[in-house]
């Protein structure tokens, strides 16, 4: 058998190829050997596919080390071998290995732009920038290094851009390039306009810090406080605006927000920090003020502690009189003194008195504001008795309450003693004890003389003990009143006045008993005073009668002796006194006179006689008003007129003197409105009023023609009606002849409306055309035949 001819082959790194070995004959085995003479065993990169007389060697992803002579050996059955070989040449194509784009550098440093390119043979590398080849002659800061990298000394932002790395292999005419973006990072530059800020806590205030940054890439701005980065929240709000401005807004500033804040700008080229300071002013706040309890006569120290920024000044105010004390003050009596330091003030009160009891105000004040709190100074003291009433009166069988009133702090316990024996709270047969805070009442019901005498009240608290003695004495009835006097005696009434008795018998007077009777009568009538008033009014007396009166005082023990008897006589019946008068305008042409009854003379007012007239008339008009009325209404009256009034009251005895009164009726009110009559009317109403006015004008023109020229529609109607009359009279002729000049227009208007059978009475006219005041009338009748009849009133026939 025999092989194909020997041949050679070129293969680039990374390529894959296969080789076929074909034997002519009948070989038993076909084997492949590598350049190192080792038989090739199939692997991941080399595979063998062998048939009877054919074998295929596959090389995947060839590498430089795969270059050399590969032999294919065939062996027959007798062990005879033949071989063929192939020369494999491996070369490296132009390859850019892991070239990064962009490549970043820091401003000012020496930058080395990496262009890692391999080939076999070694390639020639040329750099281009902005389509121009980079040479050391034209670019002093640029240098191509032996490893084909481009070095830029003190790189700046102006050097930023796209650089081309071009490699070529002349032997093969192979050329390739890669574009590399060069980025120059500039470290952050940070500035602030304002470095220190002021704010006031607890006033919903906000403060905004602003940092201005520059750099490439744009720096990331973060805010820090006390070493911790601040995160966005309701209180901390972050904003970033154009121009590199970054802002931190602190909302609802509180006291703890004060201090140093750091603005930090960071990018790939580095970082920079600036500090800003927030000064938080805090409104004064009193943190410690307590109520104080002191013992009367001792010293009291009241402490007030306040905080704030700036530290506030502390002052004191006594609420009872408004007196103020500041640091270093001392009162005139030397008892009050104030000492303070570093937000704490102490008010010292020496020799505490009960008058010091009460509220004290502590006020902390600074230029930011003020805060005030109050405390109460409580004073403990030994019990004090509140009353000097130590003598009580009673009588056998009458209970009496002996009250022991005590003021003390803390409250005192109280007990009663009688002749060195303590009266228990449950009491005895005739004594009982009723207790309340600050009060103890001993109820004693004297049963015999030995129940009268001295009782002792003891009050005790942890400050001390006090005693008070009370005397229970036997009571008596009051002595007699004196200086009984009678006043304001009239026909039916009399007023009794008197002086209190010299002794009330030890028991308060309940009332006074006034007795009176007619002289010669044996029956006394009783009148009780209202409470203990020393004036009593006697009513229901008879006129012109003599009475006797006496007075006695009554207390719990009983009624005392009567006073001396006094005599008085009531007045006889007479005419009433003149009434009092007051007046006011009534509605329209009316006037209201108010009548106030004075002395009725002992008998009821029957009536009031009211006479009135104008000041230009002589004749009086009279109006009778029942005596029960309290006013008289005068109407109708004339406008713009003065009236004179005379009022007399009458009872059964006769008339009073008259009361004179004058009043003035004003001018007639002007009811014409200031606004236009048509201002409130609609269009339809205005048109209707216009038509009505036109009709009225036509009627007036027709009536004028009737009287002046004896013509017109009214004249025609009148003549037509008069020509048909069935009876003729003198007046009828005058009408027919147009001589009814004195008939009012409304009569003819009725004639025009044919009010058949209507009857109208007209007032007579005097020669001058005025209406006569006489009640004489003329009766005009229109009958069914349209005839007109006139006749005098029956009363004047």
From TrEMBL:
Pfam families with a match to the protein in the record: fn3, I-set, Ig_3
Record domain Fibronectin type-III: where: 480-573, 575-670
The UniProt record lists the keyword Cell inner membrane: no
Topological relation to the membrane, as annotated: Single-pass type I membrane protein
Subcellular location: Cell membrane
Top-rank taxon, per record: Eukaryota
Swiss-Prot/TrEMBL GO biological process terms: cell adhesion
Name of this protein: Neural cell adhesion molecule 2
Limits of the Ig-like domain: 1-87, 92-176, 188-277, 284-378, 383-473
Gene3D superfamilies found in the cross-reference section: Immunoglobulins
SMART domains, per the entry: FN3 (SM00060), IG (SM00409), IGc2 (SM00408), IGv (SM00406)
InterPro entries: FN3_dom (IPR003961), FN3_sf (IPR036116), Ig-like_dom (IPR007110), Ig-like_dom_sf (IPR036179), Ig-like_fold (IPR013783), Ig_I-set (IPR013098), Ig_sub (IPR003599), Ig_sub2 (IPR003598)
Segments passing through the bilayer: 677-700
Cellular component GO terms held in the UniProt record: plasma membrane
């Amino acid at each position: 058998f025999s092989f194909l001819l020997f041949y050679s082959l070129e293969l680039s790194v990374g390529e894959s190829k296969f080789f076929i070995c074909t034997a002519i004959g009948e070989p038993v085995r076909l084997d492949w050997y590598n350049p190192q003479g080792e038989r090739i065993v199939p692997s991941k990169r080399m595979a063998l596919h062998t048939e009877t007389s054919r074998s295929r060697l596959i090389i995947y992803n060839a590498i430089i080390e795969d270059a050399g002579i590969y032999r294919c050996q065939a062996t027959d059955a007798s062990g005879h071998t033949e071989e063929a070989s192939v020369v494999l040449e491996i070369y490296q194509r132009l390859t850019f290995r892991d070239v990064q784009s962009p490549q970043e550098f820091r401003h000012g440093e020496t930058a080395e732009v990496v262009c890692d390119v391999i080939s076999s043979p070694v390639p020639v590398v040329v750099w281009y920038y902005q389509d121009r080849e980079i040479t050391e002659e034209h670019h002093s800061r640029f240098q191509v290094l032996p490893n084909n990298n481009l070095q830029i000394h003190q790189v700046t932002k102006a050097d930023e851009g796209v650089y081309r790395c071009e490699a070529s292999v002349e032997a093969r005419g192979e050329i390739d390039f890669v574009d590399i973006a060069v980025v120059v990072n500039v470290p952050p530059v940070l500035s602030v306009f304002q470095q220190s800020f002021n704010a006031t806590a607890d006033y919903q205030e906000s403060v905004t810090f602003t940092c201005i940054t520059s750099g490439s890439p744009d720096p990331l701005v973060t805010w820090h406080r006390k070493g911790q980065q601040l995160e966005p929240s309701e209180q901390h709000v972050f904003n970033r605006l154009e121009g590199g401005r970054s802002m931190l807004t602190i909302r609802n500033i509180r006291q703890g927000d004060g201090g140093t804040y750091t603005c930090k700008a960071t990018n790939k080229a580095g970082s920079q920090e600036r500090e800003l300071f927030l000064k938080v002013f805090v409104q004064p706040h009193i943190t410690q003020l307590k109520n104080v309890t002191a013992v009367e006569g001792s010293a009291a120290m009241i402490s007030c502690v306040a905080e704030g920024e700036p530290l506030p000044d502390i002052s004191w105010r006594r609420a009872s009189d408004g007196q103020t004390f500041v640091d270093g003050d001392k009162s005139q009596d030397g008892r009050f003194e104030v000492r303070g330091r570093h937000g704490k003030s102490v008010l010292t009160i020496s020799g505490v008195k009960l008058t010091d009891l009460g509220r004290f105000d502590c006020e902390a004040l600074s230029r930011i504001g003020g805060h005030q709190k109050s405390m109460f100074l409580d004073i403990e003291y030994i019990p004090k008795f509140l009353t000097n009433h130590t003598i009580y009166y009673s009588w056998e069988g009458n209970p009496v309450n002996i009250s022991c009133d005590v003021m003390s702090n803390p409250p005192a316990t109280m007990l009663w003693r009688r002749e060195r024996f303590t009266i228990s709270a449950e009491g005895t047969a005739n004594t009982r004890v009723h207790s309340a805070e600050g009060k103890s009442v001993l109820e004693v019901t004297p049963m015999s003389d030995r129940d009268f005498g001295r009782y002792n009240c003891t009050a005790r608290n942890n400050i001390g003990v006090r005693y008070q003695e009370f005397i229970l004495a036997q009571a008596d009835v009051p002595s007699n009143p004196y200086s009984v006097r009678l006043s304001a005696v009239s026909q039916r009434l009399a007023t009794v006045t008197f002086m209190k008795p010299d002794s009330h018998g030890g028991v308060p007077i309940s009332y006074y008993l006034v007795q009176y009777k007619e002289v010669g009568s044996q029956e006394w009538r009783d009148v009780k005073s209202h409470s203990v008033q020393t004036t009593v009014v006697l009513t229901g007396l008879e006129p012109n009668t003599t009475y006797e009166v006496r007075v006695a005082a009554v207390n719990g023990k009983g009624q005392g002796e009567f006073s001396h008897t006094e005599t008085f006589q009531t007045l006889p019946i007479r005419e009433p006194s003149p009434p009092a008068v007051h007046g006011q305008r009534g509605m329209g042409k009316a006037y209201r006179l108010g009548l106030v009854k004075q002395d009725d003379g002992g008998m009821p007012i029957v009536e009031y006689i009211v006479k009135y007239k104008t000041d230009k008339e002589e004749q009086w008009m009279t109006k009778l008003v029942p005596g029960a009325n309290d006013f008289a209404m005068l109407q109708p009256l004339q406008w713009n007129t003065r009236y004179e009034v005379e009022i007399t009251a009458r009872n059964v005895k006769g008339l009073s003197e008259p009361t004179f009164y004058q009043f003035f009726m004003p001018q007639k009110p002007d009811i014409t409105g200031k606004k236009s009559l048509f201002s409130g009317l609609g269009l339809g109403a205005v048109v209707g009023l216009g038509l009505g006015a036109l009709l009225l004008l036509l009627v007036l023109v027709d009536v004028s023609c009737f009287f002046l020229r004896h013509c017109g529609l009214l004249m025609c109607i009148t003549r037509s009606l008069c020509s048909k009359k069935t009876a003729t009279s003198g007046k009828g002729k005058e009408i027919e002849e147009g001589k009814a000049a004195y008939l009012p227009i409304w009569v003819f208007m009725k004639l025009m409306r044919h009010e058949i059978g209507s009857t109208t009475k007209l007032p007579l006219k005097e020669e001058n055309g005025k209406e006569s005041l006489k009640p004489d009338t003329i009766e005009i009748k229109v009958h069914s035949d349209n005839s007109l009849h006139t006749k005098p009133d029956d009363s004047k026939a």
